[in-house]
What does this fold into?
Amino acid sequence: MCGRYATTRSAADLSALFESYDDTGDGLGPDYNVAPTDPVPIVRISERLGGRVLSVARWGLLPPWAKDARGGARMINARAETVATTRAYAQPFARRRCLVPADGWYEWLRSDGVKQPYFMTRSDGGVLAFAGIWSVWRDAGTPVLTCSVVTTAAVGDLALVHDRMPLLLPRQRWAGWLGGGGDPGELLAPPTAESLAGIELRPVGGSVGDVRNDGPELVSRVPAQPLGSGSAEPVTQTLF
It folds into this structure.
């Protein structure tokens, strides 16, 4: 998965969809070009409230022992193959899993020397739920909620754009992911090709490459060479 995605639904829409208490305050707005360290919505279990809560977290997990916030930009993704055993991710995976709502995510392909971005999104306009983990880091005593997106090997046509993708969770897997415990193999099982049949690989304009750009025009379809019709290679944007 690349280091960019879009999440534009309102807090009211997301809290209704995920049947969660809205704890975002005024900290959530539409973002068509989410980049590392940006504030993003997550759905997690709150012991204090006894159920699901919609919160705003900083994208890029910071373990409690992190000396400063700079390392978070390198921890936006956690690999499904190692998330249960990596020191920074193991405890959040075991105890603090979340859902990361998204409209879709971006990847880049280089063809004939030109980088072409693609937006992976549901063709019916629905919301995707990325598997995520969260943690709390303290900045001079102030708690900061942070998160990472769990990634897995790309499935089906998505592998034409990149060999990695976010671990997408259908509704029937939400409760198991958010709950405590569970078998890691089942929790981290990649989505089936059938479950991804409704994902569109949409070519979009190059403006998304600049983090300063935002707006619905970033996800508008543009003409592009059909995938698989010529030589192309993924553009590595960040760590996985």
